[in-house]
Design goal:
The chain is mostly beta strands. It has a single domain, classed as Jelly Rolls, CATH 2.60.120. The protein is built from one helix and eight strands; from the N terminus they run βββββαβββ. It is globular and about 45 Å long.
């Protein structure tokens, strides 16, 4: 799924985008991307949701990686409460299961890619989400 705002003169902002898909093994991952525009930084919360999904076949322990537009790994997270938990909790939208992954980061203008994998090469259905935090 792709979503574009082609009117750069408009003061519109996308608050959230999410995609559900199957996470396979190796390079069969779930990918979400976003582009930050403007001249300042924007805080974005990326979430990898699996265990709390109300369906069968869900990914039991997702991991999350965030890359910049040059392919440089910026951050990796397995269980969201293991790093930056207080700040993620303060967004009021932390993942509901401790096995889910989250990255809260201030991003400068540019392209970013978030990748969801299954811990220990496990598989299942997951959701990748990106929220702009005000």
């Amino acid at each position: 799924m792709e979503l574009y705002d082609l009117d750069l003169g408009a003061d519109s902002k996308l608050a959230n985008i999410s995609t559900r898909g199957v996470v396979g093994q190796d390079d069969n991952v779930l990918i979400g991307g976003t582009i930050v525009l403007g001249s300042g930084s924007t805080t974005v919360l990326f979430r990898a949701i699996g265990p709390s999904l109300p369906l069968g076949g869900k990914l039991q322990d997702p991991t999350l990686e965030l890359y910049d537009g040059q392919g440089q790994l910026l951050e990796r997270n397995d269980n969201w409460q293991d790093s930056n938990a207080a700040a993620i909790q303060a967004t009021t939208i932390p993942p509901s299961d401790p096995r889910e992954a989250a990255i809260l980061r201030s991003l400068t203008p540019g392209a970013y890619t978030a990748i969801v994998r299954g811990k220990n090469n496990t598989t299942g259905v997951a959701v990748i989400e990106a929220y702009q935090i005000n």
